[in-house]
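task queued by scheduler; priority normal; single chain, no ligands, no partner chains; default sampling; output format set to C-alpha cells
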Amino acid sequence: MIEVLRAGLCDLVMDQGRPGCGALGVPAGGAADPAALAAANLLVGNDEAAAGLEIALLGPSLRFPLGGVVALTGTRFAATRSSGVDLAWNETLVMTAGETLSLERAEAGCRCWLAFRGGLLVPRVIGSRSTFLPAGFGGHLGRALRAGDMLAGGMPSGGVRLLRAQPPPGLEETSLRVVAGPQLGQFDEAGLTAFFAGTYRVGAASDRRGLRLDGPAVTHARVELPSQGVLPGAVQVPPDGQPMVLGWDGPVTGGYPVIAAVVTADLPKLAQLRPGDAVRFVTVELERARVLAAAQWEIEELA
C-alpha cells in the first residue's frame, strides 16, 4: 500500500500501454520511455510489464505504511527519504515501514519512473493499467494522483535482489535523429532547409499528446491529404509551418504532412524535453535507426 501525502505536477499510473488498439481510436500510450519503466520493474523483481508511476517535472511525496521495494529510473529529481538513507537512481531501494519518499523538482529533463515491487494494482482497461488522460480512463480513476489517494500494490514473491541498471548510451545528446517521413517530397528546398538547419523551442502547450515547436516556418505544397496512420515521434507540419512531434497519447490518424519521424532510440529524449528546451533534427539512414533501436539497458547485481 502507498499513500499519496502530496501530489506532484502530473503523476500517472503507467505500464507498457495498449498496442494494437488504433482501430478503436485508442493510441498505444503507456510510459513515455517504456524501456526506463521496464528497467525499474526489473530492479524490483517485477515483470517488465508491471504498472508503476510516471512522474513529470515536480514529484509527489509518498508514504509506505508497510515498507516496500522500489526503484527510480529516468531523469534525476531532487529527492529525499525520511530514513535519511541515500537515495540512488537506477538501483534497488528498500523502504522501511512508515518511511516517506519525497520527490521535488527534476534536476534536468522532465520525467522519471518509479516501480514498486509487486506492481500497482489498478483495474485494466482495454488490456492495460495505463492512464489515458484525454479520455479519462485507465490508471487511478483515469486521472493524475491527488493528495490522499491510496494505491494498492501486488503481492511480491521470492527474495529481494539488490540490482543496478545502466541506460543505453547516447541519451544525453541533445539532437533528435530522424528518418524521412512519407510526405518528405512535398516540402520545397526552403522548407527542408528551415527544418533541418533550424533550431526549435518546445512550446508551453506541449504535453503527452504532442510537442509543439516554435521556430523557423517549414513551407510545403499545402496539398490536401487523406487521413493517414501516425505514431509517436511523427513530425507533422500544419499550415502555419510550425512542426509538431506527436506524443504517446496523440491521435492515431492525422491529415497534416509528415516530414520526418524520430527514430525509436531517440523517443526517450522526447520524454525528457520540457517547455523552452532547444530541439534540432539530424537525419540518419533507416538501417542505422534499426541498429540504434537494438541498444538495451544493462542490469547487474550489486556486491
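post-processing summary
- The longest strand covers residues 99-106.
- The radius of gyration is 20 Å.
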